[in-house]
UniProtKB/TrEMBL annotation:
Matching CDD domains: LuxR_C_like, REC_NarL-like
Superkingdom of origin: Bacteria
Record PTM 4-aspartylphosphate, positions in chain: D59
Coiled coil: none
InterPro entries named among the record's database cross-references: CheY-like_superfamily (IPR011006), NreC/VraR/RcsB-like_REC (IPR058245), Sig_transdc_resp-reg_C-effctor (IPR016032), Sig_transdc_resp-reg_receiver (IPR001789), Tscrpt_reg_LuxR_C (IPR000792), WalR-like (IPR039420)
Residue span, Response regulatory domain: 8-124
PROSITE patterns in UniProt: HTH_LUXR_1, HTH_LUXR_2, RESPONSE_REGULATORY
Any one GO BP annotation for this protein: phosphorelay signal transduction system
Organism encoding this protein: Occallatibacter riparius
Identification of the protein by name: Response regulator transcription factor
Residues of the signal peptide: none
Keyword field: DNA-binding, Phosphoprotein
Occurrences of domain HTH luxR-type (ranges): 140-205
UniProt-listed Pfam families: GerE, Response_reg
Length: 212
């Protein structure tokens, strides 16, 4: 890369004030050029193809399509694409999904200006940047037993407060089958009841609550 080449940045953030603050901050940095903005997942994909940024800053939770899904979608077509997830969510599964999707860095919004600038430079150079505390969360996630697709469905219903009978009716299976799935979930999560399972699922980012 030539020393005088600007780093072209796309900012993807659904909160308008936060996005504008990030854009304003980045535009004060010598060598950075903000080439586009997006407030949701679909717009992010469109803006990426339109602007062809060197580095994309992207939040994890976005309207319509999640940040991880945006990263996965773009990198399936553009292997060179470089992403920094910048978010408030630090659950082990949040980290795991984002990095597995192809993001090169995972940062929390509490980082300093200098830390963000350094991360952008590193990712632009083709390097990964995962802070130690985030790497520790990824390591813990890799130790988990994987859930089956059906167990993941059941867990989502548990977090939504549904009874075994309601879950069984929704999934078209018997209550005994649901009870077996729940017992397996409790064992894998290392908890003793449904309430603890729901709390753990939310804390780890296994299930996203939708307040819309």
């Amino acid at each position: 890369m030539l020393a005088d080449k600007l780093i072209r940045i796309l900012v993807v953030e659904d909160h308008h004030v936060v996005r504008k603050s990030l854009v304003t901050l980045l535009e004060t940095v010598a060598g950075f050029e903000v080439v586009g903005e997006a407030g949701d997942g679909v717009e992010a994909i469109n803006q990426f193809h339109l602007c062809q940024p060197d580095v994309t800053l992207i939040d994890l939770r976005l309207p319509g399509i999640s940040g991880a899904e945006v990263v996965r979608s773009i990198r399936s077509e553009a292997k060179h694409a470089r992403f920094i997830v910048l978010t408030t969510y630090d659950g082990e599964d949040d980290v795991y999904r984002a990095l597995r999707s192809g993001a090169q860095s995972y940062l929390l919004k509490g980082i300093t200006r200098d830390e963000l600038i350094a991360a952008i430079h590193l990712v632009n150079e083709g390097r990964s940047h995962v802070p130690p505390e985030i790497f520790a969360k990824l390591a813990r996630r890799l130790e988990w037993e994987e859930f089956t697709p059906r167990e993941s469905e059941v867990l989502e219903h548990i977090v939504q407060g549904r009874s075994n009978k309601q879950i069984a009716q929704s999934l078209g299976v018997s209550e005994a089958t649901i009870k077996a799935h729940i017992n397996s979930l409790l064992s894998k999560l290392g908890v003793s009841d449904r309430t603890q399972a729901a709390m753990t699922a939310i804390q780890r980012g296994l299930v996203t609550l939708d307040f819309s």
